[in-house]
Design a protein that fits this description.
Blueprint: H1 2-14, H2 23-39, E1 43-51, E2 57-66, E3 75-83, E4 89-99
Antiparallel strand pairs: 1-2, 2-3, 3-4
Pfam families: GvpO
Protein name: Gas vesicle protein
Organism: Actinacidiphila epipremni
Length: 105
């Protein structure tokens, strides 16, 4: 029981304080979190994570811009999110809009 409590408390404190992007996975999580906070949209996933020359990260985050029924017709967008090496947001921009059910050409 104490072990479970310890896990819960450490998980609860992870979101507090300054977050750091550690590796590609951490960068993807931080980019999705920052983008969601600024745009109000929930990330569907990250389609690209690339390290930059200055120890930062460039992350492509996919979000639902307009939900439709059926879901395959929803309007999606890909945002390019730039993070510094410490995980702070440098900037973001929408680079693409597309229907969920349409494949790249």
């Amino acid at each position: 029981m104490a072990e479970e409590h310890g896990r819960r408390s450490s998980t609860a404190t992870r979101g507090q304080g300054k977050r750091r992007a550690s590796g590609a996975e951490g960068a993807a999580e931080e980019a999705a979190r920052c983008l969601g906070k600024l745009t109000g949209r929930i990330a569907e996933g990250c389609s690209e994570v690339t390290p930059t020359e200055d120890d930062g990260w460039l992350v492509s985050v996919d979000v639902v811009e307009v939900a439709r029924i059926p879901d395959t017709t929803s309007l999606m967008a890909t945002y390019e999110v730039q993070l510094a090496g410490d995980g702070t947001l440098r900037g973001y921009r929408r680079v693409r809009r597309y229907c969920r059910g349409v494949a790249d050409s």
